[in-house]
Amino acid sequence: MNGLLFECLNRNFCEECKDFLIEEYNEEYEGQLWEESMRIINLIENTEGISGCVNEHGLSFFIETEKHKALLDLGQTNNSIKNAEILGVDLKAVDTVVLSHGHYDHSGGIMTFAGINDQAIIYMQRSAGGEYYADDGKLAVGDRYRYIGIDKEILKLPQVRLIQGDHVIDDELEVFTISKRTHMLPFTNKRLLIKTEDGFIPDDFTHEHFLVVKNNGRTVLMSGCAHNGILSILDAYKEKYRGLPDVVISGFHLMIKREYRENELQEVRGIAEELSKYPTKFYTCHCTGVPAFEEMKKIMGDQLEYVHSGEEIII
Description:
Radius of gyration: 19 Å
Shape: globular
Oligomer: single chain
CATH architecture of the largest domain: 4-Layer Sandwich
Strand content: 15-25%
Distance between the termini: 10 Å
Strand order of the largest sheet: 8-5-4-3-2-1-18
């Protein structure tokens, strides 16, 4: 029923239809839908979704549990904050922010958010403030190597907590990292680099961590871009928690700006084949890209959904 509710709330159904489905759900679960469910709202991502919401290359999620109102990332600009207002999300009530990794398209709204809410604790890996660059190639307009890290002013905010590795916030929220990968990095990561005194080296993505949300017996694994590879992330989750998440919400970092080569399509399909073996519902967006999503959808069917800007998931 959750999948049907997701479709109804987000696909321009008439209000009568929406009310009917919510009523049916509440009857089935004895009126506990809104009291006990976890609400996750996509505040912004790359594609158009709910009418009135802006879309941009970036990502932000609002998460509401029994104890928390939290954010995972804050997009490329302050458009995620504008969308929150349109969607009726009170950012002053947010108590926790998790920055998934140290890239501009996930951190761009943090300074504006901090001006609205200076009480929410902002968690990020200690290495998230590093010198991260993208290689735009020999034909790049302007500099070939483009800075894609966070605004360094973020690191000066008193509410920022720089953590090293895994960290438990409380019994509902925690983050974990990967100590070793079990699969190759996605092919799209090859152009992502770290600037050092001796030049550029491949990004090791130690600045990336993954949010685990627990609420009323349900567990959700959330990642911004899954730069470390969604299959490696799931293996790390299984090893740490001795089980599997009920739901995964993540970009898969499979998007490219040209047509896919056959070997790249094979990689996309291979990831989908592996994910289809899990008893888990997957929601994706942002850096997965619509073409890769459509290719994966052929294999995963209803197990995989795309979440557009402004859309809501109830778990």
